[in-house]
Amino acid sequence: MSDVQTISVELGERSYPIVIGSGLLDGGFDLCGFVTGTDCLVVSNETVAPLYLSRVLANLKGKNIATVELPDGEVHKTVATMQTILDRLVTSRANRDTTVLALGGGVVGDIAGFAAACYMRGVAFIQVPTTLLAQVDSSVGGKTGVNHPEGKNLIGAFHQPQVVMIDTSTLNTLPDRELRAGLAEVIKYGAVCDSEFFSWLEANMQALLAKEPAALAYAIRHSCELKAEVVAADERESGRRAILNFGHTFGHAIEHCLGYGEWLHGEAVAAGMLMATELSGIDTADLMRLQSLIAAAGLPVAPPAIDSDAWLRAMGMDKKVQQKQLRFVLLKTLGESHVTSSYDESCLRRLVGAD
Q1: Does residue 121 have an active-site annotation?
Q2: What is the mean pLDDT of the chain?
Q3: pTM across the whole model
Q4: Which of 88, 180, 222, 265 is catalytic?
Q5: How many CB atoms are located within 10 Å of the residue 335 CB?
Q6: pLDDT of 267
Q7: Is 237 labeled as catalytic in the residue annotation?
Q8: Low-confidence ranges of the chain (pLDDT < 50)
Q9: Domains plus CATH for the chain?
Q10: From 77, 88, 188, 252, active-site residue
């Protein structure tokens, strides 16, 4: 087992640790200590449960454990799927001291977290992310929710976990496509707030794709450090935290217009980041560096063909919209970003094929 590293998300009385290490599911961390009551519901999916559920249950000896296994995929990130978790909580007669534990990727974490936020007006929640995307992004910060037919993540709540336990060895079973999708969110951190990290990614992309443990451990830890800092300063995304949505206005529209699951979230964000960078109007050399890094990660550098009206309609439901006006995360330069409603409308129309 590798050295265990801990990062704190500083939110006063709701502060919590992000614990990172290899082999944590094999007894390297006291997960049971974060289940405050006697009852726990473990939520996983049909892909992850056969791989890791037994290890989680072994870590929870002495607790009353119920489980629920969800279908796999973004297409199932719905109110109806969340209802199966709520039903399981009710049928197991869960009380307010129950803890919901999410074992899986971003979809499992988002749905389970939202169910925990809703059940009895909020019960405790633990994240055990098993994909790179969930480990570096969605498991940290308390965003939970489900999709609506009219837009991604439109229904949800902020509900912080008790702990995020990241066992990096779970990436050994992660398909290459899912690994690349997670790298999109890693690249995002460098692009929006850390130019030195961006340069490190340029130098180490092949090591990350090869799943070299040291490279992955550093990328995960530093991504979590950056997100923890931003979340601590702006928990509910009223200001600076919105920069972490770089590329997501375009990316969410791609996912919605294609039908959830056709492109993975990270693939859509990768193309969306390049569209947002073009809209930013920054130095061409910086744009080309980002494009080269995204291409080196094996991610899309151009969006799919989508009707321009569908583009604009989908982006109109973005959560950054204020007073019916689109707002984008744009780059000032690589490593520095801002949220603005001031952008070149003719460039936007060109990007979505409206001109």
Answers
A1: yes
A2: 95
A3: 0.95
A4: 265
A5: 18
A6: 98
A7: yes
A8: none
A9: 5-173 (3.40.50.1970), 177-351 (1.20.1090.10)
A10: 252
